[in-house]
Amino acid sequence: MPIDQNGDAIIEGMSVRRLPKISLHDHLDGGVRPATIVELADAVGLELPENDPEDLADWFADKSDSGSLVEYLKTFDLTIGVMQTREGLTRVAREFVEDLAADGVIYGEVRWAPEQHLAGGLSLEEVVEAVQDGIEEGEDAAEGNGHDIRVGQLVSAMRHTDRSLEIAQLAVAFRGRGAVGFDIAGPEDGFPPSRLREAFDYLASEFFPATVHAGEAAGLDSIRSALIDGRALRLGHGVRIAEDLDVVSREGDEVLVHFGDLARWVRDREIPLELSPSSNLQTGAIAAWGTELADHPFDLLYQLGFAVTVNVDNRTMSRTSLTRELALLAETFEYDLADLETFQLNAAAGAFLAIEEREELIELIAEGFER
Prior knowledge:
Residues 20-367 form the Adenosine deaminase domain. It is built from 16 helices and 12 strands.
């Protein structure tokens, strides 16, 4: 199945880009347009490794393909560097939503860490307001182009700093004003969710939902802590839950698997896995299984009944889109439209929305795929 230069593909006569999609794991500072970085960097005096947008896009892709999450995260110095003013934050958020809409997304959750955007003198409240302004401008622009989209903020705390409770309180304060959930980001290995237990206790007392990065750079203990200490309703990546599966035998399409207690809990409780295939390859999250997309345990998890969802993680670093990720999976594992629809339905069911709104998304997905 050919994937064109725009990352689109045709499956069963349908453009993948035109299919309705749900985006659950998408970082704001990982989705800045290279051309915007060039323009904003000049305005704030930030030195770039490349000053041509195409060359800069190549630089991001090369630096991100290191096999190390730590090295991968270093590329964010540039994107965060141009997101320190109200104008920069609003523009990046607006363009982010416009890019989601162009990718066929009808509902998205954008995660970002307000504490990383204070160097320009803005307060935590001001940066959240600036991003929300951009989101709403992007939604209005998309509507003007005939595309309905809704985007909510996942306010994130950096797991290696000591501001998690403050950020959790910030997220709750903006409930109803753009914030739909909480997350923790940054270096996973060595910084388990248990370090932020006070913040998660507070969120639980406020009935505010959390998704937790776990099972990417660290293994099963990280996932266990996300569920127990973080009360995570979703797992950010979570790909290494496959380490708790023992493949006993394979005969054709039949696979006999022994489940560990943790894997069975995640599967049986339908806890969504926010899988990001290209990113998982780049950061080495699937190194235990191989170095090609075909080695990704995505299909094993899907066939075993886990609530798998498809995400981009960082569009700029992986030079990808949700359309491209779906097309690559379809090409690699021979998925059809019914499979791609299942991934969107899983994501809709896991969205941090009221059940009535999730049911509406499910109807929109069914209608879009039927057409």
